[in-house]
């Protein structure tokens, strides 16, 4: 968050001069006024005295922050949000952070400058302490991703349970050598990993770091992971991929290399995206009812904006379900 000191440094003036400009003090030259105003615009600085006035203005717009616009999960999620918002006369602004903490904070200028009434974090690249200061400008809630330290509402799933039931399914099929893929260190990825580890340790299996992969997101990443394990002397016989995109890439590459699914490699995805039933074989995955998450998150956001609900530190947990298909 920028301060008067930052504005002064940007404008090349003293903090006292900046304060006089902000408070419309007489006897400040026009060029200094322009320098201060230019610095404020460039930094997105809003004086505290203006913040409360801005907060009371309603734009009927909500911003949704996602990390990868090419991920079909986000397409389905945002579509459900937009439909819910439109029914209540609100517009949705889609913001693609590309997994960048800096870009994510840049989008919060929309809230600070009152271009939107609230922000839904469907992806979160920054810790809560970096986001918390912006809550004085409008409503902020989490959807899917979350920070346990956040003092706002979190609409999400029990991702530990998701990771657990996906891995337990493979254990129940007789697999003992189970690999795991995760994205970055987001709450979703970390908690799914906890579920995976819980399941295999309960089964008395020692986790094998060589079978655990990080920063895996795409179909191509899935192909790369398969090519890597195919060179191992002791490869896993099954994978909980944490993503339908990754699962699809892994299955396709395995088939291209003469591996049979599930006989040589069983695969579980996550999301139950359309690709799960378009592949041959269709693959087992975790349905997290993406449209329901999006609709519920927007419902909560609008209720908070319209003062029908308090924005407090609470988790609204929605269900998920294992969908068994031919890949296992």
Automatic annotation (TrEMBL):
Residues 2-56 form the HTH lacI-type domain. The keyword Transcription regulation applies. SMART domains: HTH_LACI (SM00354). GO terms for molecular function: DNA-binding transcription factor activity; transcription cis-regulatory region binding. Keywords: DNA-binding, Transcription, Transcription regulation. InterPro entries: HTH_LacI (IPR000843), Lambda_DNA-bd_dom_sf (IPR010982), Peripla_BP/Lac1_sug-bd_dom (IPR001761), Peripla_BP_I (IPR028082). PANTHER family: LACI-RELATED TRANSCRIPTIONAL REPRESSOR, NTD BIOSYNTHESIS OPERON REGULATOR NTDR. This is LacI family transcriptional regulator. It comes from Jeotgalibacillus salarius.
């Amino acid at each position: 968050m920028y301060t008067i000191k930052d504005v002064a440094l940007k404008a090349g003036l003293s903090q006292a001069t900046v304060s006089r400009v902000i408070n419309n003090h007489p006897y400040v030259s026009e060029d200094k006024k322009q320098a201060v105003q230019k610095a404020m615009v460039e930094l997105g600085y809003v004086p505290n005295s203006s913040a409360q006035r801005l907060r009371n203005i309603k734009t009927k717009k909500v911003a949704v922050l996602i990390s990868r616009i090419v991920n079909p999960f986000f397409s389905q999620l945002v579509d459900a949000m937009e439909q819910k918002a439109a029914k209540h006369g609100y517009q949705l602004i889609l913001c693609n952070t590309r997994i960048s903490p800096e870009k994510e904070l840049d989008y919060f200028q929309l809230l600070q400058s009152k271009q939107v009434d609230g922000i839904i974090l469907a992806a979160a690249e920054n810790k809560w302490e970096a986001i918390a200061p912006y809550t004085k400008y409008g409503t902020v809630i989490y959807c899917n991703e979350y920070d346990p330290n956040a003092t706002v509402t979190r609409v999400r799933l029990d991702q530990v349970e998701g990771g657990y039931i996906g891995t337990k399914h493979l254990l129940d099929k007789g697999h003992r050598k189970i690999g795991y893929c995760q994205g970055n260190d987001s709450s979703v990825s970390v908690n799914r990993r906890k579920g995976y580890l819980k399941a295999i340790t309960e089964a008395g299996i020692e986790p094998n770091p060589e079978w655990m992969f990080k920063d895996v997101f795409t179909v191509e990443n899935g192909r790369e992971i398969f090519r890597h394990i195919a060179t191992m002397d002791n490869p896993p016989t099954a994978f909980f991929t944490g993503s339908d995109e990754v699962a699809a890439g892994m299955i396709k590459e395995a088939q291209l290399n003469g591996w049979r699914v599930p006989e040589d490699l069983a695969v579980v995805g996550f999301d139950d995206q359309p690709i799960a039933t378009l592949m041959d074989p269709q693959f087992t995955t975790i349905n997290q009812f993406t449209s329901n998450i999006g609709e519920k998150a927007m419902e909560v956001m609008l209720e908070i904006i319209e003062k029908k609900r308090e924005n407090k530190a609470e988790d609204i947990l929605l269900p998920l379900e294992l969908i068994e298909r031919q890949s296992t």
